[in-house]
Amino acid sequence: MPKRRRQGYRCNCGKRPRKHLYVVLDDWDKGFSVHKLDALSLFDSDSDDDDDSDRGLKRLPGPPAVRITEAQHSPTLFAGIGSCIFVANKRQYSPEASGALVYDTETAAMSVGPRLPDNPCCVFVAAAGGGGEKKKKPKREKEKTLYTLATINHGDRTQHPSGHLLGVSVHALSAPSPVASAEWTWETVPAPLAPFDGNEEKVIAYAVHPDGRTIFLSTRDRTSWHGGGTYSFDTERREWRSHGDWKLPFTQEGYFERELDAWVGIDDDGYVCACQAAASGTDGDGATAAPEWKKTGQKLFRKGDPERYLRATLTYMGNNEFCLVESVIREDVSLKRAYGDGHGCALHVTVFGLKYSREGELQATLRRTTSSYAVCKYRLSSHVSFWM
C-alpha cells in the first residue's frame, strides 16, 4: 500500500525549490555536519505513536550536505536567513581570523562572510527592517535582515547613561548581494543602548512581532531564574522599549502563526505555548500588560530519564506546521559511552500542527508524525535545525 501523501503539501513544479529540514549535529570529532532531511519523508512517516523507546532507529540519510570544522576554544553560533545557514565563532582570538562561513542550501555553495562584531551575545534574529543605514527598497522585496546583540564594557557604571556595567548594542548584517562576499558587512545600528545590563541579564526568549519590524526579547538574571523582563526593539524607528517584568512563556525563538494569531514556542518543561503577540506600543508609564497565553495539555517532549535528555528545538515550517527536534542519549547505551562514534544518541523529529478545541484549549493535531535516527555526538553542544 502506498504511503499517504501529506494533505496540502505541494510538489516542486519547477517554480520554487522544495524546502527541507536542515539539522546541524556535532557528529564527528572535528566539528559539525549539516544533514538534509527531505520534507516528504517526514510527512509520510508511518510512526504516529508516542513510543519513547529506541526501537526502529534509522540512520540519517547520507552523506551530510556539508561538514564544518570547529575552531578550538570558541563556541560556534548558527543562524538561518533565506536559503543560507550562517556559521560563526563567538570569540575571535586573532585580528587576522577568518570571517563567518555562509552555506547556501539552494546552490550547495560555501562562501566566506564577515566576522561577527566583538563580544556578540548568543542571539541571532531574522526580521524585516532596516540595517545600519536607511535604504529604500522596492516594494516587491520583502527581504529579512540578520541581527545580533553585542556587549560593550564601560568599565565603570558611571560611563553608561543608565548605570549599566555592560551596554548592549544592536548590529545588522548588510548584504547587498544574495551571495556572501566582501560586500557583506556588520553595521552598528544607530540606536540607543538596550535598557538592560548585559552583565546582569541574559536573553532567554525572542520573537518577531507580526508587524515585521519589532523584535521582542525576554531576559533573566544570569545568576538565577528570577529578575529580568521583556523589551522590544523597533528596527525601523531604532527604538528600545521596556514592557515590564513579565516574560514570554517560551524559551529560545517563538514564531508567529497567523492561523492561531499567536507566537508559538516551547517551554523548558516540554509544553507548546501559544502566546498573543504583545502590543508594540506603550502606555503612559512605558509598560505593557503581559499577553494572554495557553499551552498544550500534554508535553510533546519524549518521556524517559531526564539525565538522558539533551536538547529540543522548535522550527516553523509555515502554514501551521511545526517541527520539534529532540536529541537524547539512547536508553540502551551507558551514559559514559554515549559520546563518540558509537551512535550512542538518538534524534527524534516530530512534525505537528496546532489548533484550539471547542473549549478554547490548545491542542497538537492528530497529524503528528515522528521519525527517529541513531546519531553520534562528540561534545556537549547540541543540535540546531532550520527549515529552508
Number of H- or I-type helical stretches: 1
Q: What's the average pLDDT?
A: 82
Radius of gyration: 21 Å
Q: What's the helical proportion of residues?
A: under 10%
Termini, distance in Å?
30 Å
Q: Which term fits the overall shape? A: globular
Query: How do the SSEs run, as a string of H and E?
Result: EEHEEEEEEEEEEEEEEEEEEEEEEEEE
Task: Name some characteristics of this structure.
single chain, five-stranded mixed sheet, 1% helix, disordered N terminus, mainly beta, 388 residues, 44% strand, eight-stranded mixed sheet
Task: Describe the overall structure.
The protein is mainly beta and 388 residues long. It is built from one helix and 27 strands. Strands 16-15-14-13-17-18-19-20 form an eight-stranded mixed sheet, with no helix packed on it. A five-stranded mixed sheet has the order 3-26-23-22-21, with no helix packed on it.
Question: Would you summarize the structure shown here?
Answer:
It contains 1 helix and 27 strands. It has 388 residues and is mainly beta.
Write the layout of secondary structure elements.
Elements: E1 20-28, E2 31-38, H1 39-43, E3 58-59, E4 66-69, E5 76-81, E6 84-89, E7 101-104, E8 109-112, E9 120-127, E10 145-153, E11 166-174, E12 185-188, E13 201-208, E14 214-221, E15 230-234, E16 239-244, E17 251-257, E18 262-266, E19 272-275, E20 293-295, E21 309-318, E22 321-329, E23 340-352, E24 354-356, E25 362-364, E26 369-377, E27 384-387
Parallel strand pairs: 3-26, 13-17
Antiparallel strand pairs: 1-2, 1-27, 2-4, 5-6, 6-7, 7-8, 9-10, 10-11, 11-12, 13-14, 14-15, 15-16, 17-18, 18-19, 19-20, 21-22, 22-23, 23-26, 24-25
